[in-house]
Amino acid sequence: MGGKQEEDEVYGKPAKYDPSFRGPIKNRSCTDVICCVLFLLFILGYIVVGIVAWVYGDPRQVLYPRNSTGAYCGIGENKDKPYLLYFNIFSCILTTNIITAIQNGLQCPTPQVCVSSCPEAAWAVQNDQYLLTVGEVFYTQNRNFCLPGVPWDMQVLESLQQELCPSFLLPSTPALGRCIPWTNLTSSDLPGIDNTSISQAINGLLDSLNARDISVKIFEDFAQSWYWILIALGIALVLSLLFILLLRLVAGPLVLVLILGVLGVLAYGIYHCWEEYRLLRDKGASISQLGFTTNLSAYKSVQETWLAALIVLAVLEGILLLMLIFLRQRIRIAIALLEEASKAVGQMMSTMFYPLVTFVLLLICIAYWAMTALYLATSGQPQYIFWASNTSWPGCEDVSVNTSCDPMAQPLNSSCPGLMCVFQGYSSTGLAQRSLFNLQIYGVLGLFWTLNWVLALGQCVLAGAFASFYWAFHKPRDIPTFPLSSAFIRTLRYHTGSLAFGSLILTLVQIARIILEYIDHKLRGAQNPIIRCIMCCFKCCLWCLEKFIKFLNRNAYIMIAIYGKNFCVSAKNAFMLLMRNIVRVVVLDKVTDLLLFFGKLLVVGGVGVLSFFFFSGRIKGLGKDFESPHLNYYWLPIMTTILGAYVIASGFFSVFGMCVDTLFLCFLEDLERNDGSLDRPYYMSKALLKILGKKNEAPPAGKKRKK
Questions:
Q1: Helix H segments across 84-129?
Q2: CA–CA distance from 251 to each of 334, 341, 662 (Å)?
Q3: Which chain regions cross the lipid bilayer (predicted)?
Q4: Averaged pLDDT for residues 32-47
Q5: What's the pLDDT at 298?
Q6: Which of 672, 682, 692, 663 minimizes the C-alpha distance to 248?
Q7: What was the pLDDT predicted at 212?
């Protein structure tokens, strides 16, 4: 008894009986007000950052290509000219790689003009056309590909020397707003143009931008299969819901099957290791003959490897059997809590669809951050510099290249052939541009904090709803009429600060992990094993810390939802309560994880297999209305369906997991508060009372509670 008392003192004193306690406290006050004010001020600053980004940013720089004069193609004066044509597409390939070109907005050191349509046929200026006018060669032949303002009567030779008109055209296809040439061109299509240059330039560009054809096919596949994907996701939703509702009937047998399955797998592993060990032992294959080698696969051919694996599996099998023998009572409690959680979900079906609210809020947070980051990244005015393809040409020696210029004031004639004003980048002057990095960091912090706050809100709201179920003395009569909406309003009104406090702690740890990952990425080339070991240890510690904080926050939110106290007190009470029942916590956690993993496997695997057989056309005889669509990539809707089914199953099972955790904490509190007497009856179900060997002196149906 003395040891038990000392343990209680270490992990806090058990909760005492309170005759006025009827579940989630109604009369509560605001908690963590300082953190609430800081969170609201931070959100206000986040909104200000969004306004600054909206004022200074210009996402058209990403969405629309620019021509040589800096005007956007597809809007404004170029509304009817949505595509950008490069005069010399080879300069884009010969001067830079395609990845760098994309990062710079696909800008190339060659004149660019907005066109209404891309060239459909190969063409090049012939020798007898140099002395003709631009109007005769280009305009009258419907080749409107010269820069704006080129005179009709200018000679073609002069326009080519000043790079005002293209010397050749390639049959192109629009992609990413640019005219991208075809790949099946030969030198016969373009007289005077080297065939090697054509293949190197066009193939190099289209090998990297061939995503257009793929994207079109992907769009076609989605257009033909979207309704079947929705049907498959509907099946996943129904399966997830049925699995949770059926747990009240099959939770015990299902857990038993899962446990026996784990034991069976370990037993088979032991048998397989023994057979391999016996075979290699008879052959005399020993590790002494192999010696030390870095080829790990070679160790499969020695008997000691299989002997070690056999010993490990046998130890695991023995530990699991001993745990089943000595913890069978607690496993029965875990099963009863799972059944009780299924009943709670059945009584409050609205909780199953609360993840939709969380999903919408998360989508809003992500969309706001993405738009803010996009606008910030495109803030600043475009800058242009003089550029010439060859500064050694006559007349180009005195030209100051790489100096600022105005593309709208560029002269049509110049002493330097090919001199042009090209886009360089965006200015970094101005308050918003100078603080761009800090504003982006603020946005990332806002993203993580808001996301974690939304997740915390969902956990606290669900905990409040399920706690009202457990502490209802007469079920379902005493359950509030709208438990979910009441918990939602109560949480927002009183505990925004507590949720912000817990989510801020988690956010700081996650930001630290991101910084550490960035440092590790930068130091990846370092061969110092000590540094790599230290980084690995730091990453492991932060990962464990994040997991612990998530676990602590989750239980703290449950206590906040029930008692309405601040975050620190709730986290302390939850942690002490769990430590006083650590064995039950471990058993329930592992049984729940195993069951939910099996549920996800069942839903995702079942929907995935069904989708595979349907979209691959392996299911015959369904009739014309149920025929599988003809797809370019039948694996695309399959992967979409599997991903969607996983998201749906995770959403449903997260609600169920929160229900189990809430009922478990309420169950532990019930054991400490009450003793089953007439004045202090238990609130737990009859199944739990039966397992514990306890009973209420007065049945709930006839019990009259004290006012």
A1: 90-95, 98-103
A2: 10, 11, 18
A3: 33-56, 226-247, 254-271, 306-327, 353-377, 453-473, 494-516, 556-579, 591-615, 635-668
A4: 94
A5: 60
A6: 663
A7: 44
What distance in Å separates the CA atoms of residue 320 and residue 571, rounded to the nearest whole number?
Answer: 32
| H or E element that contains 84 | strand 83-86
State residue 158's pLDDT score: 82
Q: Is the pLDDT higher at 558 or at 416?
A: 558
Express each pLDDT in 72-107 by its tens digit. Answer: 788 777 888 888 888 877 665 544 443 344 334 445
Do you know the residue count of the chain? 707
**pLDDT for the residue 469:** 87
Q: Amino acid letter at 198?
A: I
* Contact indicator for 588, 332 with CB cutoff of 8 Å: no
Q: If you search the block for the tokens 């612990």, which residue do you land on? A: 548
Instruction: Tell me if 194 sits within 8 A of 187, measured CB to CB.
Output: yes
Cβ atoms of residues 443 and 46 within 8 Å: yes
Q: Taking the chain, what is the end-to-end CA distance rounded to the nearest angstrom?
A: 35
Q: Give, to the nearest 10 degrees, the angle between helix 354-377 and helix 635-673.
A: 120
Any residues with CB less than 8 A from the CB of 462 and at least 6 apart, and which? 351, 354, 484, 487, 655, 658, 659, 662
Compute the Cα dihedral for 593, 599, 604, 608 and give only its sign.
positive
Question: Could you give phi then psi for residue 691, rounded to 5 degrees?
Answer: -65, -40
Q: Which two tokens stand for residue 98?
A: 């395609």
Contact between residue 385 and residue 403 where contact means Cβ atoms under 8 Å apart: yes
Cα gap 449→501, rounded to integer Å: 10
* Residues 231-245: b if buried by 16+ CB within 10 A, e if exposed: ebbebbbebbbebbe
Query: What SS3 state is found at 421?
Result: strand
